[in-house]
Amino acid sequence: MARRNDHTREELREMALASAERIIAQEGLAGLSTRKVATAIGYSVGALYTLFSNLDDLCWQLNERTLSCLMAAIKEVDETDPVACLQGCARIYQAFAEQYPERWRLLFEHRSNTDNPLPDQLSTRIGGLFEHIDGCLARLYPRIDRHERQLRSRILWSGIHGLTQLEHSNKLFLPDAMTAEDIRIHLIDSLLAGWDKESHHA
Questions:
Q1: Longest dimension (CA), the chain
Q2: In Å, what is the CA distance from 100 to each residue of 158, 183, 196?
Q3: Which residue intervals of the chain bear CATH 1.10.10.60?
Q4: Concatenated DSSP letters of the chain
Q5: Residue 124: is its pLDDT beyond 90?
Q6: Cα Rg of the chain, angstroms
Q7: Which pLDDT score, from 0 to 100, does residue 5 have?
Q8: Dist. CA 10–CA 73, nearest whole Å
Q9: How far apart are CA 130 and CA 155, in angstroms?
Q10: How many angstroms separate the CA atoms of 65 and 103, rounded?
């Protein structure tokens, strides 16, 4: 078993999070435990608890890492056309869930066993995701106030997330000529068309 001083604290944390990702990819969320992570990196469970206060903390940090990865991909979308940007962000979200299904599930299925609030850094990551959508909507609808813009960004995300969840669960029940991408494109276009009408009548 490795000694604690064989790696820096940051190196050990990176090893632990990478191992945790591999474990949930191979065994699902139910297979994750601090003991398995410690065994995978060759350290004791006690050494692991110098980095994570408990399994909840490990899961929160995994989620923060997952959101960072997702946001890095979303930020690569061309923002020149806000409509195309929204469609691109939704496409990346669906593709991410398909590529990393267990990490995506952990974002929404992990429930803390304690009364600890959501960590600040994780809240910041989540806020960054919505700010990106808000930015696209601000350029499309410059006259709406902040509250309305935030409301619309949540409506958009809820629709895309629901579609992604159904696709991930094989519960879309699509006819042969239809794809999840068809629904995604039409969903966003329809919402924007409705909001365009509201803007013209305002």
A1: 69
A2: 19, 21, 35
A3: 1-52
A4: ---GGGS-HHHHHHHHHHHHHHHHHHH-GGG--HHHHHHHHT--HHHHTTT-SSHHHHHHHHHHHHHHHHHHHHTTS--SSHHHHHHHHHHHHHHHHHHSHHHHHHHHH---SSSPPPPHHHHHHHHHHHHHHHHHHHHH-TTS-HHHHHHHHHHHHHHHHHHHHHHHTT-----TT--HHHHHHHHHHHHHHHHHHHHHH-
A5: no
A6: 20
A7: 60
A8: 24
A9: 11
A10: 10
- For residue 104 the two structure tokens come to 């995506």
In the chain, residues under CATH classification 1.10.357.10 are 54-201
Second CATH level (architecture) for the domain 1-52 = Orthogonal Bundle (1.10)
| pTM of this prediction exceeds 0.90 | no
Topology of domain 54-201 in CATH is: Tetracycline Repressor; domain 2 (1.10.357)
pLDDT band at residue 98 using 50, 70 and 90 as cut-offs: very high
Question: Residue 76: how many CB atoms within 10 A of its CB?
Answer: 9
With beta carbons less than 8 A apart as the criterion, state whether 17 and 65 touch: yes
